[in-house]
Amino acid sequence: MTADDVREAAAALAGRALELPELARARTVAAYVSVGSEPGTLTLLDALRERGVRVLLPALLPDNDLDWGAYTGEGSVARVQHGGKMALFEPSGERLGQDAVTGADVVLLPGLAVDGRGMRLGRGGGSYDRVLARLERAGARPALVVLLYDSEVVAHVPEEAHDRPVHAVVTPSGVRRFR
Predict the structure, then answer these.
(1) 145 falls in which pLDDT band (50, 70, 90)?
(2) pTM over cut 0.90
């Protein structure tokens, strides 16, 4: 994709996501800053903030679990290189703890693909598997939404016993709900 294609896809993705009733009602959203070839999220994060939504961003811990911090604008994130792994954009302010995500009304998840059952294929580090397990243990039931390109909605992804389906996928061309 060209840089223009990526920008257009990010704007379309943000527009589709902002139409979700779950996001319209949300007071707190756990999200992430896209990296590499992921669909752009900053437009969406800024639009949520403009609505008065508290946006939480993850910070990768050495064991691949996630801590959380508040997003207060583009200046509140820092590029962090994690050893041989990819560089991530993480909150630069105070850390709120691993359980901060349990207060989110919506959790926006990254992924490589999602299938017709709502099963999400992640990058393999298990960070979001830990988040989903933490939400389940806490009895938290936020809307789980994956942000992807249209071509990343596929017929089938591999599934392991600990995997949990998401509620919806948002792509630049629309929203697909599961369950």
Answers:
(1) very high
(2) yes
